[in-house]
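Researcher: Predict the fold of Ubiquitin-like domain-containing protein.
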Amino acid sequence: FRIRRNSQFSKLIHAYGEMKKIDVKTVRFLYDGTQLHPEHTPDHLELEDGCEIDVMLEQDGGKWNGNGKH
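Model: Structure tokens for Ubiquitin-like domain-containing protein follow.
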């Protein structure tokens, strides 16, 4: 995807969801381990041209009750 430096990531997130036919609430967009927020822009995060953004499935953690049983 290409995005203008002053465009909010919400446009990218929406386009990705449409292309993959997924609910974007089920994924997280990360750059260098930092989550991208819809209102941020590439300029806000000082991203370089050609950088790669990772898309990860949101995962719920396991339950820990303190006695070693899950």
